[in-house]
Amino acid sequence: MPRTDQITFDERGLVPVVAQDARTGEVLMLAWANAEALQLTHSTGRAHYWSRSRKSLWAKGETSGHVQEVEDVRMDCDGDAVLYRVRQTGPACHTGERSCFHRGIDGEAVGEGADARHMLDRLDEIIAAREQERPEGSYTTYLFAAGIDKVLKKVGEEATETVIAAKNGDNAELRSESADLLFHLMVLWRARGLDAGAVWGELERRFGQAPRPGSTAARASRSADGT
Q1: In the prediction, which pLDDT does 5 show?
Q2: How far apart are CA 74 and CA 152, in angstroms?
Q3: Are 153 and 196 within 8 A, CB to CB?
Q4: How far is 184 from 142, CA to CA, in rounded Å?
Q5: Which residues pair with 109 in a beta bridge?
Q6: How many C-beta atoms surround the C-beta of residue 129 within 10 A?
Q7: Quick one: which H or E segment has residue 127?
Q8: Single pTM value for the model
Q9: Rounded to the nearest 10 degrees, how much is the dihedral formed by the CA atoms of 83, 86, 91, 94?
Q10: 47 versus 3: which is more confidently predicted?
Q11: Beta-carbon contacts of residue 1 (< 8 Å; ≥ 6 apart)
């Protein structure tokens, strides 16, 4: 359970909460929470807040569908502010803007900058949208409609072409074929219900880890040690 006793709530029993995109660091919104909202956020994994105007709890996205999946909750050094690091579905702002901070202090709209997310995160979002919406004329739609066997066939073809490009010593071809392979792999993950973030998380988990028993790296390590 979260240690809300370490948080300094104001006279209304509230603490300001900043919601930040966990992938990009982008600040999405500022809201308020009481102890119950923090408990619900912890127990459900979705962002909960306290509405000062309605004087009630609310879950982000409960009406719009633009939910915030919370990766972790932090408090500042004084314990009087809280940070939700989230995965945002759709825009965070009720105006339809991605972030509530879309205006300069002079009141003028701030031009939308380039999406700060990594290309692979943006690509994964597009693939997910194609799976759900199935727009006509989309190659990704075609792959999902053709089924898992077609996707597997394409992954195999692109893997072979990547190997051939590397063998030929043509880096331009290798770059192109590698991009094709990665794209089809991500379609495969989506078709099998495997979140790309889980793959990135697996890679992250392996940093600094000893080679897995039975892996090529482990066998190479034993050979180098003379074991």
Answers
A1: 82
A2: 41
A3: no
A4: 12
A5: 103
A6: 13
A7: helix 119-133
A8: 0.56
A9: -40
A10: 47
A11: 39, 42
Is the separation of the CB atoms in 17 and 31 below 8 Å? yes
Contact 99, 115 (CB under 8 A): no
- Report the length, in residues, of the chain: 227
Number of Cβ within a 10 Å radius of residue 103:
12
The CA radius of gyration of the chain, in Å to the nearest whole number, is: 23
**DSSP label of 99:** S
Identify the helix (H) or strand (E) that includes residue 70.
strand 68-75
Instruction: Specify whether the CB–CB gap between 106 and 46 falls below 8 A.
Output: no
> Phi and psi for 25 in degrees, rounded to 5?
85, 0
Residues 20 and 30: their CA atoms lie apart, in Å, by 9
Alpha-carbon span 42 to 36, nearest angstrom: 10
Q: Could you read off the pLDDT of 71-104 as tens digits, one per residue?
A: 999 999 999 999 999 999 989 999 888 899 988 8
